[in-house]
Amino acid sequence: MDSVGFVLTGKNTDFPNPIMAFERTIHNDHELSDDQLLDRLRQSDQQAMAQVFDRYGGMVYSVALRVLKDPGQAEDVMQEVFFQLWKKPDGFVEGRGSLAGWLLVLARNRAIDQVRRRKPTDSPEDVVLASKTNLASETERNLMMQKVRGILKDLPLEQQKSLELAYFEGLSHSEIAERTGDPLGTVKTRIRLALIGLRKALA
Amino acid sequence: MNAQEHISPEDLALHALGSLPEAESAAASAHLAQCAECREQLAEFSGDVAMIGLSMPQHPLPAGARQRFLDRVAADAYSSRPAPEEKKPQEEKPLPERQASQEEKTLPEVKKPAEEKKAKVVKFPLGAIVPWAIAAGLAFFAYTLNGKIATLNDQVRDESGKVTALKAETAQAERVLDVLTSPSAQRVLLTASKTAPQPSGRAIYIAETGSLLFQANNLKPIADDKTYELWVIPVNGSAIPAGLFRPDATGSASVLLPAIPAGVEAKAFGVTIEKAEGSDTPTAPIVLAGAAAAAAGE
């Protein structure tokens, strides 16, 4: 590994963006892939944990916050999700989807468990994702965020509504049917179509 | 649902969202355990669900959240080290306070059945009152007992927390002494990189165990949204963050045994000013710096 050394050139300002941009330029030289970071996590490398946290913390926190609507509780969920990864990095099985997707699913599920005041409904090992979209780079993440937002916005309104009630409130299909006044079968179909619509648009 | 009958795509989509009612969800899980085809489809839907998470508006983390998490990781790493008489206190780490307080909030709900039973007693004729009164008495006794148990549990938790904290403090103090007195410790003097002679720092470091002590004097005061950050500059690789610190009123500050990897041979140490939550990479300018080789054996 080439040494960056300690003598750095760069502007130290009070504005976060130039600093972050500056940090990124240094960081990119040594950017590790998710798999490399996971290897280090298995050896209890705290620096690797910090890097994973820096990479995905904001994303995980934002999902938990959207579901729980409380910064304190959202932070608790975020901590639990990352601490679980720290304690059991093998809970995420390589080849079962992307680390980012796995963290997002766990964060959302833990947040819903809390909203619904129930015990965790699944174990991390059970979460298997087909999607392997690599979200390790910030640019890739930002692009994908914009893309997903656009796709969801373009879904038929009733599909959006059903999906939102299921995803953000953790409602069962019968609860959604009660809430919207639609027949059960219709709710089920809408949710399936919404997910497949998203998948196709991302393909 | 039997093993031969596949789960409908609708139900798989709901299962991926956790939106199947409990009974159906259990049946689906049983089928999934045996059916690779359905598992594959479920993974597709779960992948879709994961992507929805990306549509969230992104919020900055609460102030200090990163440090709180990394502190927890560092504490866990420290307590998980193989050491004599060390149990694993972190595994029993109490839930975050907020969760605990939520559990407490649910307690009155648990007690409801007992209260309902008492209310019903009044409606029964006199002959039936005695057994019901006994039941109500027992229910009330159980209610009171529950309260006592909860209080005692709290006390036990509190006490065991104190013991854990004391053990950690003792272990920490022992390590500090070891580093201070070890003949193999590197002792490095850090001085201001430019002409001003006042600010200075001293780092004492044992690479083998990743033990580092740092003490600085005459530091300039720092803005609230900034922090001083100490760095280990390894012989190979990029700078390793080694703790955040703020000077006291006299300009003094110290960093004791920050969580850094063991076995890293250091060529230098440095201090920079970073944003309040710290940074993974040093930001210029360097406030203090010292080369390990020059000061070794001092």
Note down, in words, how this protein is organized.
The complex is a heterodimer of chains A (about 200) and B (about 300). By secondary structure, chain A is mostly helical. Chain A folds into two domains: about 30-135, RNA polymerase sigma factor, region 2, helix turn helix motif (Rna Polymerase Sigma Factor, Chain: A), CATH 1.10.1740.10; about 155-205, Winged helix-like DNA-binding domain superfamily/Winged helix DNA-binding domain (Arc Repressor Mutant, subunit A). Chain A has helices at about 15-30, 35-40, 45-70, 70-85, 100-115, 140-155, 155-170, 175-180, 185-200. In chain A, about 40% of the residues are buried. Chain B has about 300 residues and is α+β, with helices and mostly antiparallel strands. Chain B has three domains: about 10-55, no CATH class; about 85-180; about 185-295, Sandwich (Immunoglobulin-like), CATH 2.60.40. Chain B has helices spanning about 10-15, 20-35, 35-50, 65-80, 95-120, 125-180, 290-295, and strands at about 185-190, 200-205, 210-215, 225-235, 240-245, 255, 265-275, 285-290. Chain B has an eight-stranded antiparallel β-sheet with strand order 5-4-7-8-1-2-3-6. In chain B, α5 packs antiparallel against α6 (about 125-180). Chain B starts with 8 loop residues before the first helix and ends with a helix. At the A-B interface, α1, α3, α4, α5 and α6 of A face α1, α3, α4, α5 and β7 of B.
